[in-house]
Each structure stands twice: as structure tokens, then as C-alpha cells.
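From the shared-data thread, chain only:
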Amino acid sequence: MTADGTVAAEIATEQEYFDRAAGERERRRRAVADIPGATANKGAAQRAARYVEARLASMAGPLDQVAIGRIDTDLGERLYVGHELIRDEASSLLVTSWKSRTAAAYYKAKPADPLGVRRKRVFRCTGNRVDGFADTVFDDVPETSVDADGACLPHLDDALLTELQASRG
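Structure, as C-alpha cells:
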């Protein structure tokens, strides 16, 4: 990672992005909730209400983090990966669903085959507040390390180690 001041600036930048994406998610939630009011009759309104209930239940909550991670590609693109697809009013992609094919490189990139990923960032959050992150920069990652006896050891990236430490409490 970078120096402490730079890390704080990076966290602030990520928080701005998270806040923007959360605002768009809530705009969409309000739009979905308004659907029954646009129906022509009582039966359609009831069906629309059932749809709205199911749709809102499938969406992340208003305080949930918008993204679990981010990848930076060799082409200079950034892709945020989260629970669900989030677009802004102009339909520009803000966050892609972790289930989409677009997000596959986030999970599948490895030092031996980075799949066009230059950096993978894993966020640590409390709700939608960015507390920190762990980066794996694939240009800098050795495929394996060697222990004192000369045996090859698999590389464990900072993000994996952070997750393991967090799960141990």
C-alpha cells in the first residue's frame, strides 16, 4: 500500500464514490416503490405491489456497502463489484453485480493469469463507510515464494490475509 496520508486520501476518494453509488441505489429504490401508482386498475396495482415487494427485498439495504471490491484493468478502467448492479441516471455503470460475467475477473485473476487486471482492491467497511482496503497489484505479485528450505510456497495476497485475520476476530 501507500503512505498513511495517501491511504487516508484514497479512503476519502472511495467514500465519495460509495456515497454517490448509494445515492443512486436509493434513487432506484424510490423509483421501484412508485410503480404501483402508475398502474391502470386495481388488479394491475396488486400485481405491481407484489413485484415491488419482491424487488425491494432483493436489493441491498440503504445502509449496506455498495461494493466489496474493485478491479483496475490494464486498459485503465475501474470496475466496482458489489451485491447488485447500480447505474446512475445516465445509465453509466457505477457498480456491477458480483454474479455478473463482468465481475468474473475480480474472482478469477491470479498472478500467473491476471486476466487483464492490474490491481484488485478489497474493501473493509462498516455499513457503507469505507474503513480501509487491501490491494493486490498483479505486476508486483510473485507467483510463488521460497521458504528457508527452498520449497515453493503459494503467494497469499494482502487481501486474503486481511480477511483471514478479520475472521479470527
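The first helix runs from residue 4 to 33.
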